[in-house]
Structures are given as C-alpha cells and as structure tokens.
C-alpha cells in the first residue's frame, strides 16, 4: 500500500475542549479475524457526541487521537487470515461501537463477527444509518423486553434516529406502539405505524397512556421515572441513556468501585420500579453481525425502511455532529465519504 495514512474525524482528549476535527492518522492494521473496509458512509448516533465529554470514560477505552463514529457501510478491501465469510469487494455494513476504533474515516477495521452483508436494496448512506439503531432496538425490544404480539410498548421521541427504527421493529414484532413527538412529526410516526401518538407540546404522556408492557428509555431527564406510571405490574423498562446499573457493571467486568457507583446511580429508579413491580435495566448495545444480518433481511423485505434526515459530506463531519446534537433531526444523520 502506497498511502499508509488516512483522513479521520478525531478527538484528542476528554472534556470541555476535546478538539474534534479532521486529521491524518495511520491507516489501521488488521488482526486475523478482521476486515479492512473502505468507508462509503458513516451513520451518526447521539453517543458519538457523548463520548468526547468523558461520560463513558470508565467503560469505553480509546487511544488518543481517537476516531469518532460507530456505524458504517462500505466495501471490504482486505481480510485477515482467519476471515471466512467475507472477501475483498463485498459490500458490508456494521456497528463497531465499543471496540476502541471509529467509523468516521476513510478506512475502518471491522471484526468479522460484527459485519453483515449490505442489504441489496439500500445504498451506502441508507445502510450506514441502520446498525446502531437497528441493533439497539433488536437487543432492547426482542431480547431484553421479550416483546410479544399484542403487547404495548412506549417508545418516546418517536421521530428521532432510534425512535423511527424502534417503532417499525415493534410493529413487525406485533406490538402496539405509543410515542411522543412535537406537532410537526405526528404524521411521520403515524406513517411508521405508531398507534398512540402524544404531542408533548400539548399533553403529558403520563396523563394519557395506560396499561403498557414495556418502555424504551430514550429521553434524558425525568421521562423514565414518569413512565413508571403507565406500566402494568410485571413490565419492563429498558433504558438506553442511563442511569447505569450494577448489572451492567458486572456484565462489563468493571471493578467493585464502579459497580458500587453505578448501583448508587440507579438506586432511585430501582426503588421506584420495585414499588410498582417493574424491572429496570440499562442496555449498552453490542455489535452483532448475525443480528444485523437478520435486520438486513427485514430491510430487504421492506418490512422496515430507513428514515434519513440529512446527509453531510465527509469534510463537514464535525458540523454533522453539531447538527445532531441539537436534537431536532427526523430520523438519522449520515456522513457520506
């Protein structure tokens, strides 16, 4: 290879001035079970903005300067010696969240176990919009909440990146869906299948919704605590935004101090949910190529459609993150290489 460097969107440190910007970095080298992917598009997620603040410093490990981004779609250019499922030239999509590298770059390293064939009916931008929201929705609704036909699930902020996917997956699983949006997004979420839509500018959801079996926690603030009142006994809250809990610390094999800290952080919600016979858990998505392949089949069958708000060129990747941080997007924000 002639050119051993590449452009990537990096940050240099945690905290108030992480110095996010495009930089020349060494092109990643492959381990035996990895693919080198030429990134054609990278999907953005709210956590990409949270990582540089240091919120997840105890849990996610980066070497600086660290490349941002978790989701990608692109073309395999090289494979490690033990890779059997992919070859150079294959179009793939993946989430590489929590493996210490990033996707907003000209090239990215993807473990074979995290990669899935790109759905044939989607372009790279559409495919890049899916992995994290798809896997999060799948792991939260299908695995953790074990959502069944006829059950009711509350998915707040239905017009956002996670909401637009989760509503469609919940409908595919046969559930009824309640959501909250502002007035301008009521039609969008109805078109995705939402059954009960609360305009949060006009009503408080906890005064309107009743008899729910599951809640997907996607909104910061006191929304999770308020949602306890809409749940039946025996139901589940799966939160994507915290508070982190001791079970998560154990699963991540974190030390005793962090287990204690996360236990304290979730003490209030645990007390409130226990009173109502509701279970609470925090979900940190994990890359999974097999699940993503299943999600790909749903996309190919058009059971679920990508919802994309805005596409930015690679040169404006930093502006794309700033746009996402405003929290106004309908669907996903994607960077196109």
Task: Indicate the structural class.
Answer: alpha/beta
Q: Please, what is the oligomeric state?
A: single chain
Biggest sheet features: 7 strands, mixed
Tally of strands: 16
Give the proportion of residues in helices: 25-40%
Which series of helices and strands comes N to C?
EEEHEEEEEHHEHEHEHEHEHHHEHEHE
Runs in which pLDDT lies below 50 for 5 or more consecutive residues are: none
Characterize the overall form: globular
Mean pLDDT: 95
- What is the CA–CA distance across the termini? 20 Å
Describe the protein's architecture and organization.
It is a single chain. The longest helix is centred in the middle third of the chain and has 14 residues, at 131-144. Helix 3 (131-144) crosses helix 4 (161-172). Strands 3, 5, 6, 7, 8, 15 and 16 form a seven-stranded mixed β-sheet that branches. Strands 11-10-9-12-13-14 form a six-stranded parallel β-sheet, sandwiched between helices. It is α/β, with parallel strands linked by helices. The protein has twelve helices and 16 strands.
């Amino acid at each position: 290879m002639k050119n051993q460097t590449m452009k990537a969107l990096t940050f240099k440190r945690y905290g108030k001035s992480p110095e996010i910007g495009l930089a020349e970095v060494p092109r990643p080298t492959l381990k035996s079970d990895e693919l080198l992917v030429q990134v054609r598009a990278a999907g953005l997620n709210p956590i990409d903005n949270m990582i540089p603040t240091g919120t997840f410093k105890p849990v996610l490990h980066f070497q600086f300067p660290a490349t941002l981004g978790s989701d990608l779609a692109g073309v395999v250019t090289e494979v490690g010696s033990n890779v059997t499922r992919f070859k150079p030239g294959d179009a793939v999509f993946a989430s590489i969240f929590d493996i210490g590298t990033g996707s907003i770059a000209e090239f990215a390293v993807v473990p074979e176990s995290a990669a899935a064939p790109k759905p044939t009916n989607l372009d790279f931008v559409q495919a890049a919009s899916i992995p994290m929201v798809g896997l999060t929705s799948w792991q939260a609704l299908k695995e953790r909440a074990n959502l069944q036909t006829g059950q009711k699930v509350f998915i707040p902020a239905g017009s956002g990146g996670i909401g637009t996917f989760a509503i469609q997956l919940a409908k595919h699983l046969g559930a009824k869906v309640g959501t909250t949006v502002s007035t301008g997004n009521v039609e969008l979420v109805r078109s995705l299948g939402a059954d009960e839509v609360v305009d949060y500018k006009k009503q408080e959801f906890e005064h309107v919704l009743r008899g729910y079996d599951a809640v997907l926690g996607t909104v910061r603030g006191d929304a999770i605590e308020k949602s306890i009142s809409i749940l039946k006994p025996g139901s589940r809250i799966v939160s994507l935004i915290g508070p982190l809990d001791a079970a998560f610390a154990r699963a991540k094999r974190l030390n005793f101090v962090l287990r204690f800290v996360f236990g304290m952080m979730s003490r209030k919600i645990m007390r409130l949910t226990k009173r109502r016979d509701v279970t609470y858990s925090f979900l940190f998505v994990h890359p999974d190529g097999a699940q993503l392949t299943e999600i790909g089949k749903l996309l190919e069958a058009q059971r679920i459609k990508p919802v994309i708000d805005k596409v930015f060129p690679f040169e404006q990747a930093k502006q794309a993150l700033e746009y996402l941080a405003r929290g106004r997007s309908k669907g996903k924000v994607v960077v196109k290489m």
